[in-house]
Amino acid sequence: MASRKRSEKRSLDQWLADYAVSHQNPINKKIHWLCVPTIFVSILGMGMSVAAWFTIVAAMLVAIFYLRLSTPLFIAMGMFMLISMAAIALLPLGFKAWAAIFVVAWIGQFIGHKLEGKKPSFFEDLQFLLIGPAWVAHTLMGKKIKSSA
């Protein structure tokens, strides 16, 4: 993965290309397609079970991050967040259940990276924790992502 200065503003394509470097193995990709959205929803679920107002504010800040990268991404992720919030409201799960889902999904992620033979992208830059869901959205929509390697 190309090392970049933190102050350098990356385009969505640059973020996705850098993320794709450590997500080439087909099994790792499938694990991420399942686990990344699961982690995202479980974080929202944990947050909503503790402090709904704080979780909604945090989700709005995440949406602004996506808007700065791409309007279509902002719309896609906004819809995903709204659907996730509706599902969370309908599911009778508490904090402990969401936390368990979170842990299991992260174990899956690390298994995928073990298979890949590369460390997770967020070890280099924590913003990759928000790029993972964008990568899943792009790949599931059939958009091609070129690796920066």
Task: Characterise the protein shown here.
There is one protein chain. The protein is an all-alpha fold and 149 residues long. The chain has a domain at 39-140. The chain is built from 6 helices and no strands. It has helices spanning 12-20, 26-50, 52-69, 71-90, 95-116, 128-140. Helix 2 packs across helix 3 and helix 2 (26-50) runs antiparallel to helix 5. The termini are close together. The mean pLDDT is 88. This is DUF962 domain-containing protein.
**How far is the N terminus from the C terminus?**
6 Å
Could you say which structural class the secondary elements and strand pairing correspond to?
Answer: mainly alpha
Question: Looking at the structure, what is the overall shape?
Answer: globular
- Roughly what is the average pLDDT, rounded to an integer? 88
Q: Would you report the number of β strands?
A: 0
Name the beta content range: under 5%
CA radius of gyration = 15 Å
Pick out the low-confidence regions: none
Q: What helical percentage do the residues reach?
A: over 70%
Count of helix runs: 6
- Describe the main β-sheet briefly: none
H/E series: HHHHHH
Keywords: Membrane, Transmembrane, Transmembrane helix
Transmembrane segments: 39-67, 73-91
Pfam family, one: Mpo1-like
Organism: Psychrobacter piechaudii
